[in-house]
Design brief:
Layout lengths: L2 E5 L4 H12 L3 E6 L18 E4 L5 H11 L3 E4 L8 H4 L1 H22 L4 E7 L22 H20 L2 E7 L2 E2 L8 H13 L6 E3 L5 E2 L2 E2 H12 L7 E3 L5 E2 H11 L8 E3 L17 H7 L7 H20 L2
Parallel strand pairs: 1-2, 1-4, 2-3, 4-5, 5-6, 6-11, 7-10, 8-13
Antiparallel strand pairs: 9-12
Bound molecules: NADP nicotinamide-adenine-dinucleotide phosphate and guanosine-5'-diphosphate-alpha-D-mannose.
Length: 323
């Protein structure tokens, strides 16, 4: 039975990846940091099939101990300070966790179990001010946030450990992926949750920032499969994962509101607090290499993603409020 260690197991992607690996007969060990409140909601339904261990990417000794004690065949580094706006208010923390945290894991693997296969969760935020209309594995980076800068570091240190120490280390450059398990502060979930609240009469406004920003949005459940596929290849290599379609925040709103027979223009209000010091205007993946080499393709289209998220939030709120 292969053994996988997932950092950030209680995050959105960690929960889908853990499900996927369990279905594929892996022994799954999940690293999560200690918290004074319960942060395991996304994995509560599979908790009895996992081994959960405490650790923090800020703490080298905890990371070393995990690799030593569990001797994983595969490590998926999904842990990060992942919210872009927080990276302006906590740039040093973001650099420590999202950037240097990658090196801490790679060092542990290099010294303790160098045949471990390593996946780094890189991001389309690295493309930032895009240098090509469709971003591929060869598009130059121009990050626009401290988060994006930290991810560029994480990407290159992964490539560097592959080249310097011959580790099987890959970087998945994933474009935005969403789901009903997405954190509430990210724009898609913020919209789906507010749409459900408005429909049920629980609120009457949705404050948003830049409606013209465009993203290549896919479904998280599809994207974790690509992570696994990258680690099953003969050679370690880096891949862009996305849908090849881009849509604006406005379009997301239009579809989400019209799904419950409402008009977004009556509820969305502009709020300066949600604009960013430097914006990533548009992201659009060129995922051709992933299709060709991995045989990966997204299964959930944009419209289905939006309606899935709205339906899930409606159901959740109805249960919560007994409606
Ligand atoms: P997420 O839901 O925000 O999950 C992040 C995880 O990292 C959480 O489990 C969090 O734990 C953990 N974490 C934060 N700081 C940590 C630390 N110091 N030590 C250990 N764990 C820590 O993010 P996601 O959407 O699942 O994304 C997974 C990864 O993919 C992240 O690295 C993200 O940057 C990257 N990524 C995401 C997307 C996307 O669209 N979702 C696209 C490209 C790349 P707590 O619960 O304790 O905070
Ligand atoms: N969060 C948020 N809240 N974003 C808003 C809002 C708002 O009220 N209004 C407009 N937006 C715009 C942002 O300005 C941005 O252009 C876009 O919506 C998407 O924002 P997020 O959902 O916060 O995601 P992100 O693209 O910044 O970052 C996500 O995707 C990256 C991959 O490109 C995160 O998951 C990152 O961790 C990930 O790497």
């Amino acid at each position: 039975m292969p053994k996988a260690l997932i950092t950030g197991i209680n995050g959105q992607d960690g929960s889908y990846l853990a499900e996927f690996l369990l279905e594929h007969d892996y022994e799954v060990v999940g690293m999560a940091r200690r918290s004074s409140t319960d942060t395991m909601g996304r994995i509560a339904h599979i908790a009895d099939q996992l081994e959960l261990v405490q650790g923090d990417l800020l703490d080298q000794s905890s990371v070393n101990a995990l690799i030593d004690q569990h001797q994983p065949d595969e490590v998926y580094n999904l842990a990060a300070q992942s919210f872009v706006p927080t990276s302006w208010s906590q740039p040093v923390l973001t650099g420590e966790v999202t950037g240097l945290g990658v090196t801490r894991l790679l060092e542990a693997i290099r010294y303790v179990k160098p045949d471990t296969r390593f996946y780094q969760a890189s991001s389309s935020e690295m493309f930032g001010k895009v240098q090509e209309e469709r971003q591929s594995e060869t598009t130059p980076f121009w990050p626009r946030s401290p988060y994006g800068v930290a991810k560029v570091y994480g990407h290159w240190i992964t490539v560097n450990y592959r080249e310097s120490h011959n580790l099987f280390a890959v970087s998945g450059m994933l474009f935005n992926h969403e789901s009903p398990r997405r954190g509430l502060e990210f724009v898609t979930r913020k919209i789906s949750q507010h749409v459900a609240q408005i429909k049920l009469g629980l609120t009457d406004k949705l404050p948003l920032g830049n409606l013209d920003a465009q993203r290549d949005w896919g479904f998280a459940g599809d994207y974790v499969k690509a992570m696994w596929m990258m680690l099953q290849q003969k050679e370690a290599d880096d891949f862009v994962i996305g849908t090849g379609e881009t849509h604006s925040v406005r379009e997301f709103c239009e579809i989400a509101f019209s799904h419950v027979d409402l008009d977004y223009e009556e509820f969305v209000v502009r709020d300066e607090r949600f604009y960013r010091p430097a914006e990533v205007d548009v992201l659009l993946a060129n995922p051709d290499k992933a299709g060709r080499v991995l045989g990966w393709e997204p299964q959930v289209d944009f419209n289905s993603l939006v309606t899935m998220m709205v339906d899930a939030d409606l159901e959740l709120l109805r249960k919560e409020h007994g409606l």
